[in-house]
Amino acid sequence: MKAFNFLLDEIERGLTVMLDKGLPPKFIESYLKVCGDYIDFVKFGWGTSAIMNKDVVKEKISYYNDYNIDVYPGGTLFECAVLKNKLDQFFEEALNLGFSAIEISDGSLDISLDLRKEAIKKARSYGLKVLTEVGKKLPEKDKELNINKRVEMIKFDLSAGADYVIIEGRESGRGIGIYDEKGNVKEDLLKAIEENVDINKLIFEAPNKNQQVYFILRYGPSVNLANISYEDVVSLETLRRGLRGDTFNKLQY
Amino acid sequence: MKAFNFLLDEIERGLTVMLDKGLPPKFIESYLKVCGDYIDFVKFGWGTSAIMNKDVVKEKISYYNDYNIDVYPGGTLFECAVLKNKLDQFFEEALNLGFSAIEISDGSLDISLDLRKEAIKKARSYGLKVLTEVGKKLPEKDKELNINKRVEMIKFDLSAGADYVIIEGRESGRGIGIYDEKGNVKEDLLKAIEENVDINKLIFEAPNKNQQVYFILRYGPSVNLANISYEDVVSLETLRRGLRGDTFNKLQY
Amino acid sequence: MKAFNFLLDEIERGLTVMLDKGLPPKFIESYLKVCGDYIDFVKFGWGTSAIMNKDVVKEKISYYNDYNIDVYPGGTLFECAVLKNKLDQFFEEALNLGFSAIEISDGSLDISLDLRKEAIKKARSYGLKVLTEVGKKLPEKDKELNINKRVEMIKFDLSAGADYVIIEGRESGRGIGIYDEKGNVKEDLLKAIEENVDINKLIFEAPNKNQQVYFILRYGPSVNLANISYEDVVSLETLRRGLRGDTFNKLQY
User: Fold this and answer.
1) Phi, psi torsion values for C185, nearest 5 degrees
2) Over chain A, what HEC string results?
3) How far is A213 from chain B (nearest CA, A)?
4) Which of B19, B95, B165, C177 could crosslink C168 through cysteines, CB 3.0-4.6 Å?
5) CATH topology classification for B5-241
6) Average confidence (pLDDT) over C42-69
7) C21 and B233 in contact by Cβ < 8 A?
8) Tens of pLDDT along C9-30?
9) How many Å apart are CA A163 and CA A204, to the nearest integer?
10) Dist CA A35 CA A50 (whole Å)
11) pTM of the prediction?
């Protein structure tokens, strides 16, 4: 039972995707006792999975699985597999290691729509949940993606079979994807997205507190958020529940 | 015995209040071996206590108690209890969980002076140490508190029985309480405070290194500081002792 | 064997010097399973070693030694020993605690060249590896060091017997040493250095990701980098290997 449970309201909680960029296995084991119930997906950021030993990766994933958390390797690793023409081997290795989801992206590599579609379908055929990401890693490239193209891309991925589409924000949350240089949300882009797509199929990368507050105040605690630092999972849950000053007494459930 | 103890000077150390926003229990257990001697209070930030399981909260507190550290839930949780009209239940649950102190604040909620006084007295009657906080969470509201009002409020709390009064700085240390937009101390406010109140009854929230350095250079190592990140407790102790460049050879004991 | 090892290229990896400013021993033990292979030196920042118990320092060092990592106390502690005229005691205590390297610096204290040279030789006679640091902790003092003086100092240290010379960047990486106020590299200084000194004998303090990316893109993955946060060691290794967007498909090995 939760401490101070008489102060908690019932909420419909959105997905929380945590970023793991190299946490020690034993740390994770104890960490999940604190907030394992509030995490739905964990991403092993970019190519970090590839430089760890197999047994370490497996041990980490097993702790997450104990809390029914799906783990997936970052999209950059997928792109690395595409670049090296080893896509099947990549999916098979991911399954062997215990990953239950995969991220399909083209943040650093140009990938044709045909290949993107094929990769989504192939990942599903392997039994993997599929998250795709729309956005480029380099600001200059990301700026070339206009609003219409982004919305089209989201629709394309969903119709190709993606379970969720992630809206790029990177680890910094500034000058990229849905954020301007100061880390504020680009209103026109967000409006175009919400008018054209089911918001429940989207996950917004929101690494900074002000961004998490923004999305919760706009869409309520059920909004899906990604790139949450492991240090912020507890804080995010309190924001969703109005237990922190920024959302205290400001939410309707 | 301390390593390199022949390089350590004796100091009169002020209180250090650490912010715990969700640390894993096993992490805390090992962490305290490094710096448990340098922590006096731990705050479970805002409402974070309420979303953890009771046994996790109890386990965490017990590790802190092994080092004679008092633990208290953040003021926002107190305000939540006021809002829901469950103050007695709140104090009783706090005691049951092992908390030995409490924070009384009105950062997010307007609370009458009568109720504030009553809450301080009631907490003391439960045997809890009482820390109060002066300041608002929202910058626009915080700005309405002029210097005189802040000084009056501090005096009010102390005469009502507060053990210490915390001067608001939040987790960011910018544009709030005693800090301007850049995180620098507001000199006129600090002067008014130090001229009217016993500085030893105050605890300054100083989350950033430059703020910790500022207070130590101004008041010496005996100044009381709060909202110290768990990652900065060791650093703060070295600052108090002149073992870091910023205060090296600049302190008189 | 590494997970996804078929996606890894062989690289010639430069030295990675991690900053430990007070990590718990048990955390380190599990942490090293993730990335112990990618760390060459660990610095116990500034005077942090001196406020921990001897057995804690020894336990921490022993975990690092299991991965053949050399550990050394920060230069500020060396300067503290000079100030207190206890240099021999300092070296002996360092050896007793298990440190296998030492940092010689004058960041906070004016130290004569004669004494600097003597300290380097004495440390070597104790069997310690010697890293020296060129740069001052205070920006106003650091600015007085012009380009020629810095280059001369580097040469002086190497000819006196230093194994490596560290180029100052502090923990912040801004407005100090080789970085301007925004944290960008000072090109003219770096050019003067690389034209006059063997780059393999230098270690650049590069606490921020953009700085790590800069050096890797300029010198390749074999560049030596220091002041790497424990949270960034995995990320740095992926940057060296082109497994993160910032260096993906941009490196020649």
Assistant:
1) -70, 135
2) CECCHHHCCCCCCCCEEEEECCCCHHHHHHHHHHHHHHCCEEEECCCHHHHCEHHHHHHHHHHHHCCCCEEEECHHHHHHHHHCCCHHHHHHHHHHHCCCEEEECCCCCCCCHHHHHHHHHHHHHCCCEEEEEECCCCHHHHCCCCHHHHHHHHHHHHHHCCCEEEECCCCCCCCECCECCCCCECHHHHHHHHHHCCHHHEEEECCCHHHHHHHHHHHCCCCCEEEEEHHHHHHHHHHHCCCCCCCCCCCCC
3) 13
4) C177
5) TIM Barrel (3.20.20)
6) 98
7) no
8) 999 999 999 999 999 999 999 9
9) 14
10) 26
11) 0.96
Q: What is the CA radius of gyration of chain A?
A: 18
- Name the residue of chain C whose CA is nearest to A46's CA: C244
Q: Please, which residues bridge with residue C2 across strands? A: A53
- Extract the tokens encoding C135: 């740069």
Is ipTM > 0.90 here? yes
Instruction: Copy the structure tokens of residue B3.
Output: 């390593």
Q: Which residues of C touch A (CB under 8 A)?
A: 1-8, 26-27, 29-31, 33-35, 38, 231, 233-235, 237-238, 241, 243-246, 248-249
Q: Residue ranges of the domains in chain C?
A: 5-241
Mean pLDDT of C168-175: 86
- Please answer yes or no on whether C235 and A73 come within 8 Å at the CB atom: no
Per-residue pLDDT of chain A (253 residues; tens, 9 = 90+): 999 999 999 999 999 999 999 999 999 999 999 999 999 999 999 999 999 999 999 999 999 999 999 999 999 999 999 999 999 999 999 999 999 999 999 999 999 999 999 999 999 999 999 999 998 888 888 888 899 999 999 999 999 999 999 998 888 888 888 999 999 999 999 999 999 999 999 999 999 999 999 999 999 999 999 999 999 999 999 999 999 999 999 997 6
State percent of chain C over pLDDT 70: 100
B68 token code pair: 């004679």
Helix (H) or strand (E) run with residue C13 in it = none
Q: DSSP class of residue C174?
A: S
Q: Once rounded to an integer, what is the mean pLDDT over residues C241-253?
A: 91
For chain B, percent of residues with pLDDT exceeding 90:
90
Distances (CA, A) of A42 to A55, A60, A172: 18, 11, 18
Task: Give the per-residue pLDDT at C195.
Answer: 96
**What string of DSSP letters covers C104-121?**
E--SSS---HHHHHHHHH
Entry field: residues in chain A: 253
Rounded Cα gap, residues C176 and A72, in angstroms? 39
Across the interface, whether the CB atoms of B45 and A5 are under 8 A apart is answered no
Alpha-carbon gap, residue B163 to B131, rounded angstroms: 6
Record the tokens describing residue C140, joined without a space.
């106003």
Instruction: Give every CB contact of residue B217 below 8 A, 6+ residues apart in sequence.
Output: B247, B250, B251
Report the alpha-carbon distance of residue B22 to residue A52 in Å, rounded.
26
Q: What are phi and psi of B109, to 5 degrees?
A: -135, 140
Residue keyed to tokens 């379908």: A121
Q: List C226's β-bridge partners, or say none.
A: C205
Q: Give φ, ψ of B185 to 5 degrees.
A: -70, 140
Q: Determine the average pLDDT of the residues in C62-73.
A: 98
Q: How far is A86 from chain C (nearest CA, A)?
A: 8
Looking at the complex, report in whole angstroms how far the Cα of residue B53 sits from the nearest Cα belonging to chain A. Answer: 4
